[in-house]
Amino acid sequence: MSLYTQLQAAKSEEDVKDAYIKALGLKGYTKGLIDIQSREIWFEAKDTARHSSYAMFTQLLHYVQVALNKGEHVPPFLAVIDTEKAAIMKSADVLPFLAKKTVKWGKSASQFPQEALDEISAYIGTYFVSFRIKTHEDEFISTVKAAIQSGDITVRDQYKLNRPDVGWYQIRNAQAERNKSGDTAPVNFKPFEVAYEALTQKLRPQVFSLGFLR
Q: Domain count of the chain?
């Protein structure tokens, strides 16, 4: 039985957690305030798809902030899961943001204010890799397993380069990652960045008059 089929039959959050644990072959995990917790990865789980990945990551990052404040272990990866979607990100990408301690957290992880959600959403949007379980179940499972085994999320997985709808955003960022490796001649993005900024400055005053925002 596929993971997606099990998730559609889930009647509780525990059913959702158990389905993902089985599909991912997780070992050495515990369940508690952090829904699924291991040395390598923490999960926030929901038994409904109505919560956004941003909201679930905000809840999970509350626990990361607590761990950081106490000097406790934070795993290399963070993930959010529900009956329809899942997402994973590297903890290292968000730790510098949390270290600033600018987020005004709520009384508990699940009671975060809108300001916290807005601030975190603005930061993490380009860092997590999301999957629609109905169509990309195998891709999610292989990405998580490979991340746990290798300690990293590959550029191919991070920017979904194997998908037919890959666009300039993914290609540009993948090239930028390759530049960092120093293994190939670097690609110069400066002309594009200058032109993009000039277009941004030209269009920004017109977003309302042209009807992009109302």
A: 1
Which amino acid appears at position 46 of this protein?
A: K
Task: Give me the domain span that covers residue 82.
Answer: 3-152
The answer to whether residue 175 sits within a structural domain is: no
Assigned domain for 197 exists? no
Residue written as token pair 């038994």? 47
Tell me whether residue 144 is in a domain.
Answer: yes
- pLDDT tens per residue across span 51-86: 999 999 999 999 999 999 999 999 999 999 999 999
CA distances from 157 to 4, 41, 87, 116, 184 (A): 20, 17, 12, 28, 20
CB 197 within 8 A of CB 188: no
Euclidean distance between CA atoms 88 and 129, whole angstroms: 5
Q: Kindly provide the residue ranges of all beta strands, DSSP E only, lying in the chain, ordered along the sequence.
A: 36-37, 41-45, 77-81, 85-90, 129-132
Each residue of 99-129: pLDDT tens digit?
999 999 999 999 999 999 999 999 998 788 8
Pairing type for strands 77-81 and 41-45 reads: parallel
Cβ neighbors of 180 (< 8 A, separation 6 or more) are none
Tokens of 175: 């090239």
**Is 198 domain-assigned?**
no
The model's confidence at residue 187, banded by pLDDT at 50, 70 and 90, is: confident
